[in-house]
Request: fold
Amino acid sequence: MKQVTGGVCAVRGVRAYGIKEGKNGLAVITGSGASAGVFTRNKIIAAPLVVTREHLKSQQLSAIIANSGCANAFTGERGLSDASGMAGIAAGRLGVPTGLVAPASTGVIGVPLDMKWIEDRIDSVIAGLSDTAEGSTAAARSIMTTDTCPKEFAVELVSGVRIGGIAKGSGMISPDMATMLAFIYTDADVPYETLNSCLKRAVDRSFNMIVVDGDTSTNDMVLLTSTAKMDAGTPDESGMGELEFQEGLDCVCTELAKMIVRDGEGAEKFIEARVTGAKTDGDAKMAAKAIVRSPLVKTAVHGEDPNWGRVIAAAGYSGADLDPDRISLALSGVTVVDRGRIVDGAVVDMSGADIEIAVDLGLGACEAVAWGCDLTAEYVRINAEYTS
Reply:
């Protein structure tokens, strides 16, 4: 497996484009085939997610239309009508059934869509559709909100299959998805059942293991579509092809997830929390996510203060099974706790941009990794002024 350029447009059969005007943006991505999706677990579900989930009952998509600047969430019947209208506008221009178009939105909650703005710009977006790297970047840039940079990643597997995606996300980021959109494509000929199972596993290992601020959004979605333009990558019945595909999908999702965290609102430092020695996978995940979610850990990292007691405390309240006499902890490669004993004289340098927190619970063989960022005054400023 190797990284390739081009984002979603690295994948055969995909075209993309988008425009950005101030806080508002509009993107269209085309690529037909079997499709699967994963959505927010927030009980307040934005209108485009309701419509897209309904459209995905066919297990097929031909296009995605996404806007930024307005989440179209908590907007009632009008919101549902507008989300369906977005899909219909794109479908009409592309000549495909409305039920094969997935609408997506991101931005301020509780504000209705400006459908005229979308209608006035859809033709220029459709006209710009391209299978080039520039097309992918334009689409990725158009869905940004408080993001500071577009997020794209693509790989080519040994079989020649390509998997590529774009994503947006910077704040309202928490495990169980985030205020994020991710659109991923592959040219492998993968049936729906395999796409669905592989996507759920990949999301669980990547987007569900990131934290910026601990809030779960109303608009999160990850969509995966197979254009079937590279038959050599079809997962075979032995499972070997599927394993290769899963590895590639995991890589794309993980890299996009890390980009979201690195671009967290106001973030200055990237945190990786690796928990090993857990009794169960669930325990490892709970401990790792509790550490990167803790405001006390995040502020200590921002202040470059090696206050390791905050990490121990977060692991302790995470719900994971642990024994204080068996736990070990290292910060940035320096062991500060060794099987329950404090290491006297340990000197930890927290000045780097990337901070590694390694916790060994000493109870088993299970492990997990979570990613987060520091909590800064700039995060407070951004969110204090979000709508004003």
Summary: The two ends are 46 Å apart (CA to CA). The longest strand covers residues 24-39. Residues 236-240 have pLDDT under 50 and may be disordered.
